[in-house]
Model the fold of this input.
Amino acid sequence: MKPHSVAFLTFCFLAAPQTVFAQNVTAAPDTAELLARARTATGELLQRTREVLLRHLAARGPAGAVMACADTAQQLNALVEQSHSLSIRRISDKWRNPADAPDSYESEILAKMNNLLREGSLPETTEIYGLVRSGKKVLFRYMKPIVVQGVCLSCHGDPGSISREVAGILSARYPDDTATGYSAGQLRGAVSVTIQP
Ligand code: HEC
Done:
């Protein structure tokens, strides 16, 4: 299926409308090349996090898998960042790890994704990307939604349905956890990539 891509080339970091390119930027960065890099890195991060989750769920159940996710998620971000020379993380407006809290651009795109989901037009292949001014820099930013599935609920579902063991690990490790109360089909967050062209 053709990726459902939404490019906001004039999307700005701040609410005030302004053109994306600084005046001293003469050549537009090669967006196609940046998009290809962001896509590859995103695919790799999603595949690796999913592999860790499913392998540990099968071997040790949710209580074992929650420890594995806690211990590896940030390391996987770093691994993919190093191999693709870009910045990547999973973000959420209801984050578990405070390192995954969104910045203002990411919050705006998450709100946009939530609107698309409500309208029934947020397929898994959706990508939102564009060149965004950040201070004096122009950055390439790319986001791909992460939607909740049934398998996620043992750690992100209704608090009443999360086992006591998993809840104990979560509250010890993430005292400020806000990533519960989801049901399948809701927007959990997004992969967010930033590249300095
Ligand atoms: C076994 C428990 C468990 C299951 C099942 C699980 N997660 Fe998580 N999830 C975690 C933990 C623990 C973290 C925090 C990782 C960290 O410290 O970076 C997390 C973090 C995340 C984040 C990063 C944002 C944040 O809140 O910090 C996303 C996105 C996410 N999970 C999506 C999912 C999705 C989608 C599924 C289902 C396919 C899923 N998770 C299933 C335990 C789980």
User: Anything to note?
Assistant: The first strand starts at residue 5 and ends at 7. Residues 31-84 form the longest helix (54 residues). The beta strands are 5-7, 87-91, 127-134, 137-147, 187-195.
